[in-house]
Design a protein that fits this description.
Pfam family, one: DUF2721
Keywords: Membrane, Transmembrane, Transmembrane helix
Protein name: DUF2721 domain-containing protein
InterPro entries: DUF2721 (IPR021279)
Structural class: mainly alpha
Helix content: over 70%
Number of domains: 1
Organism: Parachitinimonas caeni
Length: 155
Amino acid sequence: MDFSISVPALLFPAISLLLLAYTNRFLALSSVIRTLYRDYQTTPDAKIVRQISNLRRRVQLIRGMQALGVASMLLCVLDMFLILARLERIAPGVFAISLVLMLISLALSIIEIWMSGEALNILLSDIEGALAEHAEAALPLTKDAAGKPDNPDRA
């Protein structure tokens, strides 16, 4: 196999875009946490407390994703240096480690995306509960032909 400097260089655009995406996720999550903090300071709510462990875990995952992505990029740079220094025998191994780190980073990204969906499901279930309560309160109290309530739970 011909292992030239262009092989690790191929990862640079992908790694750069991934790191940018990871940073954007981190910044968006930071904004959510700051907003929840302000909301909790003004009106403490159990719904906010339910989200804390999810948010904390997601922050840890994103930090791990970023660290592994940066490590992958560092190994790509080291790999290019090894190729330039004519140390081609170890360069493919360093590149393989770089790919493994990127693979783990992407796996963590999938987990974080899944957790993000779980956080949204918490909010959606709260909305559904509120809508159900509102719909129940809006049901009219009707009576059957004998004058008894059709809906005895509401009487």
